[in-house]
Amino acid sequence: xxxxxxxxxxxxPYTDRQDAVDAEGRTVGExxxxxxxxxxxxxxxxxxxxxxxxxFVNVYINDEDIRYLQKEQTPVxxxxxxxxxxxxxxxxxxxxxxxxxRPASPGAGAGDALPExxxxxxxxxxxxxxxxxxxxxxxxxxxxxxxLCIGAGGLGSPVALYLAxxxxxxxxxxxxDAVDISNLQRQIIHGTPxxxxxKLASATDKIKAINPRTDVKGYEVALSSANALQIFEGYDxxxxxxxxxxxxxxxxxxxxxxxxxxxxxxxxxxxxQASVFGTAEGPCYRCLYPEPPPPGLVPSCAEGGVLxxxxxxxxxxxxxxxIKLILGVGEPLIGRFLIYDALRMRFRELKLRKDADCPVCGxxxxxxxxxxxxxxCGLRPAADAPAGxxxxxxxxxxxxxxxxxxxxxxxxxxxxxxxxxxxRIAGSILIPLGEVPARCAVELNRDDEIVVLCKVGGxxxxxxxxxxxxxxxxxxxxxxxxxxxxxxVDPSQPKY
Amino acid sequence: xxxxxRLFARLRDIAGAGELERPIAPGATIASVxxxxxxEYPDFAQYERSISSAxxxxxxxxxxxxxxxxxxAFLPPVSGG
Lengths: 496, 81
Fold this sequence. Notes:
The structure holds 2 protein chains of 2 kinds. Helices cover 31% and strands 17% of the residues of chain A. By secondary structure, chain A is an alpha/beta fold. Chain A has 3 domains: 85 residues, Ubiquitin-like (UB roll), CATH 3.10.20.30; 282 residues, NAD(P)-binding Rossmann-like Domain (Rossmann fold), CATH 3.40.50; 104 residues, 3-Layer(aba) Sandwich (Oxidized Rhodanese, domain 1), CATH 3.40.250. Chain A is elongated, with a radius of gyration of 27 Å. Helices cover 22% and strands 28% of the residues of chain B. The interface between A and B is medium-sized, with 44 and 23 residues.
């Protein structure tokens, strides 16, 4: 009994250009063995050196992925149709697209649609071209590819530099910040002469210096639900190098909704994480972390600190994954979560699965369009929340006015002692966030008006919430923390 | 019966160690190991809803049963970039 196997465009050179061929076998494994016996050129494309099915080759039986059935042991019945679907940049194509011979994205599929390389480009990329896994076609795929970096900071810096050097034709960058001196310890795309410049202008110069042919598209905006889909549309891979939870969830959801793979990376002090989310077959960020942490619980790099070389390592993993996805080679970090510990120099890997109940990529998604991510992450009260929620904050300028007026305010700094040594507000007392529960009842008076502060306002918001639960009724959080205070009120103090 | 607990990011800081050995009772789940740790380290409690967990390097939900010798990992999310 012969079974029909649909062959995708990139593999048709090995089947005498036929889009479907017959093979025999009782299981998918037997069928593929028979297929590669009949068309020996396919073997290297379907199996790795160990004789295992390559992870980027997805096999579907009647539109069901065999990995969710019995893998290569999945039995084949009379009349079944098998589709071989290599994953490509821009997400795995549906079997219907492959059957119709339509490439899934401009960077993939039919070789003749790819841009040519000039003689100078051949010389520039010669070390790529002699790699069988890249070659001329792979380099042309890179040239056709469009990669969007979210953030031109610690992670975005190495990502953009290496992707430009590797010959990725279009690099989009989303960032609205200016280069600050505290960035230079790790954001290597920016230099000392760039202080005060827009990060996009600075990054564009460095990318162009490495590779003038790179088409850099800058988006000098705060990524939001209103603009994300429009910005992402048309990109083959998104590289998430943002620094906050609302944007992480926004990038994840937008990638899933558009079917764009997300080369994810994140850092904390000495630890990094990386994975590839948002592919049709693999899990997404929400499968791993369905709920965001409450605001203030997880310190940012500004609050928690970060080893300068750490984003270099993690960003390079993201860039590697982006290139592999574009080329369709190797085993991408799909369904695998890599944890890097720089202090102990250890890599660990967790297996992840797509969560059928995932609200965005599961079988019955409840998130079918972008939502309000600030609200989702608890940073802004819901529209129907009681009015006056904002009255729990005070701005640096208002705070100064009240101090000048002689108002009696207890100022509580909830940072760590090493931060307090760098700068402080005169008259403030230091109670690190972790010590607030033990010390507040002893050292603070419930009837006093209390202003809490930290570096940028996250930890102090948490402290303020806690104090309110303990019966302190007049607690104000200094918005923007001591950094905003220094900017607006006391520029004589150093910032960190 | 004992398990190895691996802690990451803030949880490692709070516990002061990245690897702990803990006894488990018959019928233990990831959640029961977590609850024991949260009693030992009260600051863990606030992470309960936002961590992810794994058994023997395989992502698993909190209700998953665990056995002698298993390695349980708890990972809080991190957002730095």
